[in-house]
Each structure stands twice: as structure tokens, then as C-alpha cells.
Amino acid sequence: METCSKERLEEKIKTFSQFGATGNGGITRLSLSPAALEARAEFCRRCKALGMDIVTDDLANIYATKPGTENLPRIAVGSHMDSVIHGGNYDGILGVLTALEVVETLSRNNIPTRHPITVVVWTNEEGARFPPALMCSGIIAGKFSKNAMFAVTDNQGVSFGEALKASGYQGDEANRFNAKDYMANLELHIEQGPVLEDAKKTIGVVEGVVGMVNYAIRTKGQSNHAGTTPMQKRQDALRAASQLICELYVKLGAIAPDLVFTFGHIECRPNVHTVIPSDVDFSLDARHREPAVIKKVVEVIKALPKEMMKCQVSYKENWARDTVPFKPEFVDFVEKNAKAFGYSWQRIYSGPGHDAQYVQGVTPTAMIFVPSVDGKSHCEEEMAPLDACWKGCNVLLQTLLNIDSNY
Fold this sequence. Notes:
The protein is of the alpha+beta class and 407 residues long. Helix content is 33%, strand content 23%.
């Protein structure tokens, strides 16, 4: 079985870690920022050196294509280059670099493919500069309105549409990823969690992306003076929110042992140390692969009391997604190849979202995970062992060849 070059892959990882380097081992490479444009230029330079044809679409997604021997639809492989603030050198970019290494291996070893192979770089996956996450794959999959997304602004007041125009990478809408021109999609990614490392497995055979709900919950009370208002007369929105969160921990924790939920964002107003809080907004993010479990989460939210500690309680759904299963035959290829190479592996569902989950709605898709050291991601300490990255790259190569020869 063909393998990729570990040395070339290491060089790619080291080179791209320079674009947006923070000086503390990580990167800040926000979508369409100068650092992101430098990374894009280097990617395009390398693709041209391999003789690939490069086009972009109206969302600045990059498509670099190695021709096939037959007039067949393309196999896409890739991920994203943008990062969160003070992120790491593997999230997203590893999927691009392993895809590039796969194509370089095919080219250097004169391995023909029936289908054209297109390395895709998705724009604004993280949503760290222009929310929401998965923006451009979401537009293509019909999840978001293009006009609404183009109007989204960053914290400097620059709109996504303006940043696209200024980037030099905005191309033709006709070049967009679509079901007619693409017959398969593959994405390699770090796990971004501890499961593979804890199980001492090298390859995650990703069966799909778990479903989730995200709610905004509000408690509304009354501001008053912190020094003069007796405790029994207060309408303290923060106290009510605290009580709600504690009760939700108990109720949601009893639904299923593998349900994960987070209260990750909180706003307290007026946020003055001498004033009783009048309004508190907090988020609830809950994720599980089984729709029945997510349904129970929603039932708990809808059963929240309308009043807590003399404060009004309300909620609204921010967004939700169903569990997205990947194409079983492609998932089986990933497992078969991990076994054939003699790599340790296990089947796994992804908790984080990925462009692949939206692309699956356009064309059949599969993902490959490699372990994250200590389960860390979205931080400067993010790390994936080189050997595991290389092994994942080998599985990616062979899976692509399986799809190419069987479809």
C-alpha cells in the first residue's frame, strides 16, 4: 500500500505554523486576515508547483484540482485554514496539509486516478471573525442566506462581503462545490478531544457529527441599590440564573451519561458592583448523537418555570442541528484501511461541528480523526503527534484511492 512522506508533511506543518504565529506556540489566523491571506498564497504556490488548476468561488473557497484520467466528477479533500484567536497549528489546517500531501504523493509517485482530485480550502469555518461558524460551507448547503452572511461584521465594523472583495480571492459563483461536479468529499481533522488518546488509538473512524441544540436563557429582575435593599425584597436576576443553572446541571445530567452540555456564555447587567443585577442571559449548548436524548434536553428547557426567585424566566432557541451520519461505505473504507496498515483505531462520533457535516448534504462524505494530545484544541497548546498525523494521511490516501477505483 502506498504511503505519504512523513518528512514532507512535517515540513508543511512547520511552514504553515508561521502564518499568524503568536510567539507562544500557537496562531491567530482569523478568516481573510493578512495572516490567512499569507497562508492562502503559500497553499496556491504549492498547488501550482504540482501542476494543479486553481479556481475560487464567490465565497473565496479555493479549489485546486489534479486532473483525472477519465471524464468523471471530482473527489474533494480538504478543510479550513482559519483559526480562533490564540488557536493551534492543527485544527483545520492539518486537513488541508494532509490533502496537499496526498496529491503530492500521487504526483511524485506517478499514481493516476480516474477522478480528478480537488483540494478544497473552506472560507471562515471557525466564525471567529465573522460569525457563525461553518459559514461558507453552510451557504453552499443552503443553511445560511448569502446576503445575510455578507452583511455580518467583525469587531472593527468590516463586513464579510467587504473582506471578501478586498481579499483578492473572491471568484465566480459558478465554481462553487456542487452535487453534479463532485461525487465524494473527505476531511481529515484532529479529534479536538481526549477519546482517542485515552483509548490509545491512532485513527478515529468518524461515523458522523452529533446533533445539538443551543439555547439562550434569560432571567429578568429589578436593579436596585446593593447597600440598601433587604435580601428578602430583592429581584436578583443573577441569583435566579445561578439557581437555574444548578438545577439544569442536575436535570440534564440525569438524562444520559454521555450527554455533554455547557453554559459557556453569560452576560450580567448592569454589571456594576454596587447594583443588584436586573438581567442575566446565559447560553446552554447540549450535544448527543441520539435524537431522543436531544429531545429530552428540549423538554427540560421547555419545562423551565416562568418565574424563579421573583424574576421572570424566558428562553429561545439560537440554533439546532440533527445528527449527521457520513456515508457508511466510505466510513467502512476508513476502517478497512486503518486495519490494513496495522494502525489502532476505533469508531467515533464528532462532538464539534465541521464543514464536512454540511458538505454531506451535498455529496457523500467521510472524516478521519487523529488524536489530540491531552485532548486540547482551540488553544496554543493544541498538538497532534507527527506519527499519528502521518498515519492519518496514509489512511486518507488509501481511502481516496478506494473511492476512486470503486465509484
